[in-house]
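Pilot study result, target chain (285 residues):
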Amino acid sequence: MTSQDGRLLESRDAVRSAFEQFREELDDHNDRRERLIKTSRDVTNLSKKVIFLLHRLMTEDQDGYDDQLRGRRAAAQARDKLKDIRSLFATMSQELTGERSARYQRNVSPGLQEYIEALSFAHYLEHKTLISYEEVQTTLRDDAGNPYFPLSLEDYLLGLSDLTGELMRFAIAAIARKGGRQKAVHICTFVRECKADFEALIPYFKELRKKQYVTSQSLSKIEDAAYAIAVRTSEYDVPPAMLDDLVAQTVSYAADMSKFGDDSIRRGRASRDWEYGVEENERNV
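Predicted structure:
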């Protein structure tokens, strides 16, 4: 074997060794990515369950509890469930050290945004305010105070933007209950202010534009529901108990037929349904 053949073999071995290292790095990247995606899905599922829990606790009958106390009790139960989610973030932190947090942010973001949505919903029910960036980051720390991973401002804002959809569902569900009409008006004002604040940030976060479109739809549904109820209640002089029954019937029927948030023709049909309900109740009195 000549010296030239020996150098050629050494070169081939070096190339083979380099590609084997590339293969190991790619396999490690794909395995880590799959683990993070799976954990993010688990976070999403648990966060959705927390949101459903909050809706159920706030809409079920609890005689003797005012709305503020009910909100604190619901938030307390939600915090116990959110601890399970934070344990998943703790396992993620081992995969997101150093520059990996930026590399795998897209794989973590869906679950993280859903968690922020659930956390901010619980915070709103208890305090009637938006949760701050620092408060969210505090929940993403271990017992020693070390963050599991950096919280991006984009994930924080997108998670808060998703909150408006849950507030719309909460307002529609509560509008037929005692004090629900005032609550719907308050939520409507709150969502409108959130939308206005988010508008200024659209140039910096392109994904926020899509979220704002959904927020606009949610706001329209709350406004249509509150407007329909306000107009109908001003036209009929009925006892408060009967009024609550009529509101409950109208909201339930309109929600089933997807009338709120649609065109003026549907709103006209909802008005006729309301009038028919009033006439029926007056005949029964």
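One observation from the pilot: The two ends are 111 Å apart (CA to CA). A full batch analysis is planned for the follow-on phase.
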